[in-house]
Amino acid sequence: MDRFVCERLEIFRGDEVFVDIAFTIERSMALVGESGSGKSLTLKALLGMLPKGFDSTLSYRAPFGLRRGETVGYVPQNPFTALSPLTRIKDQWIVGAHRAAARMEEVGLDASLLERFPPELSGGQLQRVVIAMALSSSPRLLLLDEPTTALDAALRHTVVQLLLQLQKNEGFLMLFVTHDIATAAALCEEMTVIRSGRVVERGPTALLTAEPANDYTRALMEANFANREFRR
Hints:
By secondary structure, the protein is an alpha/beta fold. Helix content is 32%, strand content 26%. Helix 3 packs across helix 4 (123-134). The longest helix has 18 residues, at 153-170.
């Protein structure tokens, strides 16, 4: 499997630095932190989607470049807003019909759903569609922006198991940006905790969730982000 080493990512607006971090993705990594910690900005920087006025510098080592829709796949937070409700699902893919149908089947959906409009599908089905779309180009790195937030516990478990199986089959790396510690523990082998745009602790997810060394990390684990947060 590939290895992605972010030697340094700096995100700034004018003279103000919002994020200055480094991390390594060996297989799957969760990036966690409280509201405004910079985790969402980090994801957007890797996607080349920073808000207007923000800039970034990135130094990394990987056997692939960061090209969204090619080497990098993206699963957004809300499947209900990720797709146009007035366009058939089959017309929202960047690949051909045969490839789309194959990807649908790989995520456990009947290809006939491609003929439907997004509002005709359940939340769980839509999330699978979005995952299938993100993997349509066979990316080397999959970026996930809290993709299970809008799902109930049963569907969250289903999506996690699906992602683990897809990764096993295809070997892509995963970066999971989340406030959901339980889902992060189920999905990711490694965890990086950030606060105010700086890394405060990193290591195996099982270790950080069970025996955090940093007081901030310990507070996050105890709170477990029970409430939905506003993220910058």
